[in-house]
Amino acid sequence: MSQTVTITSAQHFTQVLNSSRIVVTDFYADWCGPCKAVAPVYEQLSSQLSRPGSITFTKVNTDMQKDIAQSYNITAMPTFLIFKAGRETKRIRGADPKALDAAVKQLAQEAATADEGGNAVESSASSGATWLGAAAPRNYPDITEQVDQLGLDFLNLDGEKGDKKTPFQTNRPSALADKKTVAGGPRNDWIESDTDEQLMLFIPFMCTLKLHSVHITSLPSGDSDSDDETPMRPKTLKF
Q: Which UniProt keywords apply (predicted)?
């Protein structure tokens, strides 16, 4: 029995990305010959490596889910995307069974190592534990997973830093783990404005809800007198 999840909508895809540590997605078309040729390999990997909440294999029909295909700039079929913690980490274009097999099995090995506690550096992120800089107010749950990440729109975002999904990662910010790197770390897990000091964020949710509070993590600003390019922490927030 196939373990592959057929994506039926953008909201469905967002839910899958939020519910599984690793997601592998096959963007295909019914008329695509190479898609049909590589499909048995993909299904075999899915049946062997699928693990609930850890590794999920999905497939997206680009003719039926054009909005999803457009969101991820899919221009050739098949295209395989691999996501970790909701973020795209690898893209394989074309029917390349060897590259697909190697990439997926490497991720499966990483997931298994994390489950066994062998990866101490990334243990909190890989185990699915959510880092919160401050506890949610009493009787209010954390609703980060309700953010519709496909509908995010950030204006004046510096493309060399984190992307639109970065603020919603569940792992501890790398800059907090290494205080010597105020504006950097092993990952680009922060966002900055680009051409001026303003950064506009449009953040939709998957359902209607009432928002009680917003948690923002930032580091103290550096010495602005010595470097005009030193990042500054937010001073004014407008909703």
A: Disulfide bond
